[in-house]
Amino acid sequence: MDQKKPIAFVLIFLTTSLVTAHEFWLQPKKFRYKIGEEMKVDFMVGENFTGEFWDLKRHKALKVEMHSGAVVKNLLKDVKPSEGNNLAYKFDKEGTHLLVMESNNAYIEMEANKFNEYLKEDGIDNILADRMKSNQLDKPSKEHYRRFSKLLVQSGGKTDDTFRKRAGFRYEIIPLSNPYALKTGDYLECRLLWDNKPAPHTMVKVWNHIGDRSFLQDIYTEDDGTIKFPISSQGPWMVSAVKMIASEEKDADYQSLWTSLVFGIE
Question: Exposed (0-12), middle (13-18) or buried (19+): which is 1, by Cβ within 10 Å?
Fold first, then answer.
């Protein structure tokens, strides 16, 4: 039996949901820079690809690196626990740059009905099915969650293969072509990896901004873990997904892992 879901549907979100405010991403002021120019990045959390500033006084980044070709710079000590402008980076070479961030494991408890809605909204069908089968739909949730985020930006006009680099995350999105070589009307293909292997039949959310509106496509990965979608507009784009498994810690029932990739189209 084919377990794959319908390919995609599009929604416009105008408000922010606080119940499932789990999306996390790295947001620059812009996506293309000159050599010697400084980039400032906000660490963001929330829904609808708008969200709010991540609270670095409550949470912690464990890994922050800038990749450019074979060069990797550790920027963890440069992260500031401010409201926005959490990281500044000055470009000293031309090319595509990949900024990566991994958070620590955080903990959350949620009422049963809110947790069930969160599972439905984010396509976490395996956990929802397990709760139904074991008659636990009325049970509140205890969850650990960890975030993995990637940001692709471009310095100068020369692109390179840095976009293909793996950050070593347990859950990771890899674009199969360089977004900074694309234009509106082109297609972008990405692969979702779980434990370094393709993750098939998994919901992936593709977000983009047009003016002050956020558009969302829910797309399920193919057998090889890939999705393909049209670049329909200029501006910021985000690809994100969540994986939930049984917790390996005694104080929680579940462990979720959130991954995102952000880039810009001009």
Answer: exposed
Question: Could you give the CA distance from residue 155 to residue 22 in angstroms, rounded to a whole number?
Answer: 30
Which residues, 6+ apart, have CB-to-CB distance to 132 below 8 Å? none
- The model's pLDDT over 9-66, given as tens digits with 9 standing for 90+, comes to 444 333 333 334 478 999 999 999 999 999 999 999 998 898 899 988 888 999 999 9
How confident is the model over 66-119, as pLDDT tens digits?
A: 999 999 999 999 999 999 999 999 999 999 999 999 999 999 999 999 999 999
CA distance 52 to 261: 17
What distance in Å separates the CA atoms of residue 89 and residue 87, rounded to the nearest whole number?
7
Find, among 153, 102, 155, 113, the residue nearest to 137 by Cα.
Answer: 113
Residue 11, CA distances (Å) to 80, 129, 146, 188, 206 in order: 34, 25, 26, 20, 11
Quote the pTM value.
0.90
- φ/ψ (deg, to 5) at 78: -90, -5
Strand residues in the chain grouped as ranges (E):
10-13, 23-28, 32-33, 38-46, 52-53, 61-68, 71-74, 87-90, 95-103, 106-110, 141-155, 171-175, 187-194, 197-198, 203-210, 213-220, 226-230, 235-246, 254-265
Q: Do residues 215 and 10 touch, judged by C-beta distance below 8 A? A: yes
Amino acid at 100: V
